[in-house]
Amino acid sequence: YSTCVPKQRRTFPEDFIFGVSTASYQIEGAWNLDGKGENIWDYLTHNHVEAIADLSNGDIAADSYHNYLRDVEMLRELGVNAYRFSLSWSRILPTGFANYINKAAIDYYNNLINELLKYNIKPVVTLYHWDLPQKLQELGGFGNPLIADWFEDYARVAFQYFGDRVKFWITINEPKEICLDGYGSTAKAPMLNASGIGEYICAKNLIIAHAKAYHAYSNDFKATQGGVCGITFSVSSAQPLTSSEEDAIALEIHNQGEWAIYSDPIYSKEGGFPKEFSERIALKSLQQGYPRSRLPAYTEEEKDFVRGTSDFFGVNHYSGSLVSAVTSNNFVVPSFNDDVGVSYYTPEEWPRSVSSWLTQMPNSLNITLTRLRDRYDNPEIYITENGWSTYQGLNDDTRVNYMRAAWESALDALDAGINLKGYMAWSLMDNFEWREGYSERFGLYEVDFEDPARTRTPRKSAFVYKQLISTREVDHDYDPDSQSVMTI
Ligand code: GBH
């Protein structure tokens, strides 16, 4: 490190928000208690046990349904300004529909929200972090355009019951992971694997669902409740492998496929899907014998309805790669990968986490934020997730290194005038890492999943984050040891 000491001491602004993130299915447990309905992860983990790396499930998870007071105590220990968590749709609306509201769920979230406010911690609430009510999935889920109405109804319930105290709403977490992983492949529930088809139908229905919830908030709640409402995307950091024209094009197509297909309809001036990627899919579809593009178009009316429906840009940023052009394979079976048609490289020297997809690319956060600034005219940005995976154990130096690099990169972005307002680490504590179960750990706090009490213990990174928040400075020399005691 001594070779690249920052020129001057740099600090995060006083009003910069530091937080941590979690998601309902990954932490809550209590999968069938107090009237909760079944969701797609309950269904997958119970009926396809082998789909999860360690054959586990989220039935109990970190048991935050019973441990939320300890969770808030940990937030106070860290000294965060904000806690991003998600609501379980099927806990609040067990049928999926708004015909019946489960009082126990309202009580649970009220208790959590009130406890946060007692200590001046801002609740940042995600309405949907991947746990769709199973019945709605059987009706097509994000493959059915009616999802927009179902989601609006659910969102209205949340705004009505919690909006007097929640002033920061995120409609949907990571459209790409929902659509590509859930509908276009088997990486996430519902593992539909309608490759080259499902992800694109979902891409349109999901963003219209988001827009409906946004309009509901801005028409009927915003004036009295005074909060903000937006959406969060996963945006990795990509750079071209070479300076060739082909690789520059490859990078643009990669960006359009990975995130702009979801974010352009909301943030671009023109609205609708990004042009070049749409044209590629349309052309390939014809070559593959489809009578129309596999990517459904936005009508002019839909473009207008969706454009501008976010008060900020939420970014989940983890990994990065180098992108280069490949000659298209023209697979008989259509796929997103074939439609994008690029290949990815990860240099040997980039540190690797225990997640196959997660490496530490130098300066990756600033590269990502710069791209968003340039594409969308410097929107207000929140990092809503950023984190690193390890195995069990309290000494998580690789996470500390990753996070410090991310914070330096965020400071670079602030220096460059990027409108970055906050940073939320993924995750407060270890949790159910989807198809990886409990085999990959993302927590600042370790959770003992063998212990019925699900005891939480701070890792080294928790102390380091706490120090960053209190000093607003990245201190590369601070080295808390195993004797360190966490206090509020
Ligand atoms: C976040 O997604 C989620 O919001 C959160 O719930 C999750 O726990 C956290 O990350 C950690 O995974 O290289 O083809 O295997 C991060 C998005 C998901 C993007 C996995 C990359 C791997 C694609 N990432 N994905 S692949």
Automatic annotation (TrEMBL):
Keywords: Glycoprotein, Glycosidase, Hydrolase, Signal. It holds the Pfam family Glyco_hydro_1. GO terms for molecular function: beta-glucosidase activity. It comes from the Eukaryota. GO terms for biological process: carbohydrate metabolic process. PROSITE patterns: GLYCOSYL_HYDROL_F1_2 (PS00653). InterPro entries: GH (IPR017853), GH_1_N_CS (IPR033132), Glyco_hydro_1 (IPR001360). Belongs to the glycosyl hydrolase 1 family. Homodimer. This is Myrosinase 1-like. The gene is LOC114253189.
